[in-house]
Amino acid sequence: RVSREVLTDQSESLVIFGWGIGDQDTHILDQVKRTSVKRIAVSVHDTALVEHARSTIEKAGLPKPVFFDANSPGCWNNIDE
């Protein structure tokens, strides 16, 4: 659903929350390549997964991602918290 409905937007920036960027998800990265995304930011909970995610994104021919801590202040901007 994400690749059909969300990634059709022509935004230059993409922020990824809560996605492990596994090898089984390359079809989503293929869809991102069809957009005008030039910058990718990825939230991480486990820094051990950063190299795998970076490698998978770059092998797909996408821009080098920037990673940030998913628990960093203001990251989610939840008003209720």
Task: Describe the protein's topology.
Elements: H1 2-6, E1 13-16, H2 26-33, E2 39-44, H3 50-59, E3 66-69
Parallel strand pairs: 1-2, 2-3
Structural class: alpha/beta
Across the major sheet, the strand order is 1-2-3
Query: Low-confidence segments, ≥5 residues, pLDDT <50?
Result: none
Taking the alpha carbons of the first and last residues, their distance comes to 29 Å
Write down the overall geometry.
globular
Give the topology string: H per helix, E per strand: HEHEHE
Radius of gyration: 13 Å
Number of helices: 3
Helix content: 25-40%
Question: What's the number of extended β-strand segments?
Answer: 3
Protein model, in words:
- Strand 1 (13-16), helix 2 and strand 2 form a beta-alpha-beta unit.
- The termini are far apart.
- A 3-stranded parallel beta sheet has the order 1-2-3, with no helix packed on it.
- It is globular.
- It is built from 3 helices and 3 strands; from the N terminus they run αβαβαβ.
- The protein is an alpha/beta fold and 81 residues long.
- It has helices at residues 2-6, 26-33, 50-59; strands spanning 13-16, 39-44, 66-69.
Describe this structure in a few short sentences:
The protein is an alpha/beta fold.
Structure keywords:
3-stranded parallel sheet, 17% strand, 3 strands, 81 residues, globular, 3 helices, alpha/beta
